[in-house]
Design brief:
Purple Acid Phosphatase, chain A, domain 2; 2 domains; alpha/beta; six-stranded mixed sheet; 16 strands
């Protein structure tokens, strides 16, 4: 069984214009051959499909969206399934979630990781491919998109719940694939927490773990015979401020499952650089960069050192959460109602993101300890 997994897809800016006009081949023709050669292909839909009734939620960060043509485009490219556990799925509230699910169902595209409540969002996807069954588990870090028992959204990263899901999947499927959306944006290495968690998923019984979200590719490792990919990069995500460098480089992972440990192939490309398209490139392209990342990933002391330097570089930004100056006089004035809150609603949303999102909390805890 050959399964292809691609990273973040969001049809905006130049790509959005082409997709709106139905010019799918202009963007995806080069990638289409790679996608369709797999037995089953999965991409991360990094935005909801919305209608006229949808309204953006209040959050920290941009509210992304697409229309039906955005999904038609990935169906044309050959994708069979989308992952919905990401930090933008709930950008337009329950109405956006509902419209997305309806559109995917109408177009016959499988989906996993999102729903109208936590029960739906956390449901495993079982897919029979030929004579074998693939189980897909999809979850994301906590960032303004998480479903609850009574509200719509994405399946949250929760190692306890994912452990149970992996054990369930092992009982009903031949192969178990875990896809996570998390990590530090624009940073090409996993945190030690990410590595520990994803290795735990392998120990629990997963055959492979694939991560995306960071808007740049990362490295990979083979742990106990099973592959862990720490970042695929953007699959198709145009940005006027990022038309070169790591934002535009990425790879799809083709996993070949069999009775033995899975083997894999990386399909590399450049996306939304000079032109709003995906161009498949030489298999040897940016191998040196990936190999350097792999070397760091396999050396715990090096990984910790580089991650901590990255945290230090952003510590001043994180210190802003504790401004203005806190002291006994400020506290007394606030407790007696003599001084209004100096923290705006926008800053509260920022603070909420720092505390709830696992990747942001990693940075915050490092700052507090240093």
């Amino acid at each position: 069984m050959k399964v292809l997994i691609a990273g973040d897809y969001c049809p905006i800016e130049r790509v959005g214009d082409l997709v709106e006009r139905g010019e799918f081949a202009a963007v995806f023709s080069d990638a289409r051959t790679v996608v369709q050669q797999a037995d089953y292909s999965i991409v991360n839909l990094e935005c909801p499909v919305i209608n006229a009734n949808a309204r953006p939620i209040v959050k920290h960060g941009p509210n992304l969206y697409c229309n039906r043509n955005g999904v038609e485009a990935i169906k044309w490219t050959g994708f069979n399934c989308v992952t919905l556990a990401n930090n933008h799925f709930l950008d337009y509230g329950a109405e956006g979630v509902k419209e997305t699910l309806t559109t995917l169902d109408q177009l016959g595209i499988d989906h996993v990781g999102g729903g109208m409540n936590l029960g739906e969002a956390s449901t495993l996807l079982y897919k029979k491919v030929g004579h074998e069954v693939l189980a897909v588990i999809n979850c994301c870090e906590h960032e303004f998109s998480i479903a609850t028992d009574t509200t719509a959204g994405s399946n949250p990263l929760n190692p306890v719940r994912q452990f149970a899901a992996i054990r369930e999947a092992r009982e009903h499927a031949d192969y178990v694939l875990v896809i996570v959306h998390g990590g530090h944006e624009h940073f090409q290495l996993p945190s030690p927490r990410m590595q520990e968690t994803y290795r735990f998923f392998i120990d629990a019984g997963a055959d492979a773990v694939v991560n995306h979200h960071q808007h740049c590719f990362s490295g990979y490792e083979v742990y106990n015979g099973k592959p862990i990919f720490y970042g695929l990069g953007n699959f198709c995500f145009d940005d006027v401020h990022n038309r070169d460098g790591i934002w535009t480089q990425g790879y799809c992972v083709e996993l070949s499952f069999s009775d033995s440990d899975p083997v894999f192939t990386l399909h590399k490309y450049v996306q939304c650089s000079k032109d709003p398209t995906i161009k498949m490139i030489s298999p040897d392209s940016f191998n040196e960069s990936i190999n350097k990342l792999n070397d760091v990933i396999l050396t715990p002391s090096s990984l910790l050192s580089i991650v901590e330097k990255y945290y230090e570089s952003s510590s001043k930004y994180y210190s802003s959460i504790f401004e203005p100056l806190y002291n006994k006089l400020f506290l007394k004035a606030r407790l007696h109602g003599w001084l209004p809150s100096l923290i705006s609603k926008k800053r509260k949303l920022t603070a909420s993101n720092y505390v709830q999102c696992e990747a942001q909390r990693d940075k915050l805890i490092w700052y507090l300890n240093h």
